[in-house]
Amino acid sequence: MNDETAAIARTKRPYVRRNVRQEEARQEPVRVSAHGKVRQRRGAFQNIYGIPLDVLDRIWNEYGADLQWNLDTVKGADGREIHDLPFAVTRVGMEQQGWESVTADMFGGALEGMFTKKDHRGEIIVGGQVLQWRPRELTEEARSEERQMAQAQIGIHERQVTSGNIPGVDHKVLNPRHGSAQSVTRLTKSRVPSIPVPQ
Description:
This protein is of the alpha+beta class. Helices cover 30% and strands 11% of the residues.
């Protein structure tokens, strides 16, 4: 260390951590005007697709319907015109799965004024996504199919592990038929509590 760097090191003050008061961004409106109009605080997170849970529960229980935002356009182009997309996520693919467009007057007007102007007639489209619905029975059937497909995949992997025929493993190096491998090869399962998923 030369004289110049030693002088800088002596004059440099040590870092002191200061307690900074953390404040939560207010989610409530900044102020309400005399006319009853409000505005959100700048920088506050706002989910443009959010539907309150009580509304979703009411639509699910009272009307037997499920809601989902599906693709309408990508950067202004109709989803049907984009050839890179898997067919299942396009609007036509979703409609073949039973999804139909929601209008604001459906479900007793529960969605009226939430995403569009009051008295809006027609589809609810926000940010290239269209709000669609289908009967609850179709959603429950689709969830059941998804569970069955997931269980089938798990079964395939379990059989591969227990038999020793794991794709990508060189059997010249790791021989599943060797006596010592067969005596210790087993599969144990344990269930880790998962995050609860609302129904």
